[in-house]
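[step 3/7] inverse_fold.run input=structure_tokens len=104
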């Protein structure tokens, strides 16, 4: 009986963690669509086709981690509007970055 209760507790904990991660990914997707998708449809780049959000191009431009993506969001190069902490909170910036890494 104790083993069964322990197993149920573990399953419940995993479910809660997974649903939180799912909600965070959904938040990243929502914010990406709201703020980024206009210029980055399907991970592309309508301004500079050499700087898409796809892994190959990100890595070629030394953008490999969530922190790298956030750095570009905060201080982008020519052609991209900056997203300071007033425009995009750190939490939302991280969610967007994680979404980009998982999706493209």
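[step 3/7] decode complete -> sequence:
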């Amino acid at each position: 009986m104790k083993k069964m209760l322990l197993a149920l507790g573990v399953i419940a904990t995993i479910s809660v963690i997974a649903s939180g991660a799912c909600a965070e990914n959904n938040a990243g997707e929502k914010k990406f669509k709201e703020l980024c998708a206009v210029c980055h449809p399907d991970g592309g780049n309508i301004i500079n086709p050499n700087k898409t959000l796809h892994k190959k191009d990100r890595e070629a431009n030394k953008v490999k981690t969530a922190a790298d993506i956030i750095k570009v969001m905060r201080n982008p190069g020519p052609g991209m509007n900056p997203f300071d902490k007033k425009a995009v909170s750190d939490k939302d910036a991280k969610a967007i970055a994680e979404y980009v890494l998982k999706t493209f």
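[step 4/7] annotate
The domain at 27-103 is CATH 1.10.760.10 (Cytochrome Bc1 Complex; Chain D, domain 2).
Residues 19 and 34 are 22 Å apart (CA to CA).
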